[in-house]
Amino acid sequence: MPKSAAPLTLIDLTADEPCCPPLAESRIPAETAAVLAPAFKALGDPVRLQLMSMIASAPGGEACVCDLTPAFELSGPTISHHLKTLREAGLVDAERRGSWVYYRARSGIMRQLAGLLTIGSATTP
Prior knowledge:
By secondary structure, the chain is of the alpha+beta class. The chain is built from 5 helices and 3 strands, in the order ααβααββα. A hairpin with a 2-residue loop joins β2 and β3.
């Protein structure tokens, strides 16, 4: 009987401590790259990057889908698809309240991504 594959959890994406040194300091391990790549891929879309910015900078740290959708010239289902992609990448949490869904940025993974991209002063341009 084959074993079912366990989910890949090599790093704690909610941790306050960096997962690894910045890219400019050392090579990222393949396993860590595999865990973080979906988040970077999700942010590679302009609409999702804007949505992430709106959610992360929202007053109180959360944004209602009712406030996000009108900011774009896209249909509600298209915005929902982009939000689902951000959720699946682990970048946001969602909470339903009545008929609306509220989104909150997951600060741990945002710190992990930011730390990985940090460039120290010793690095030349």
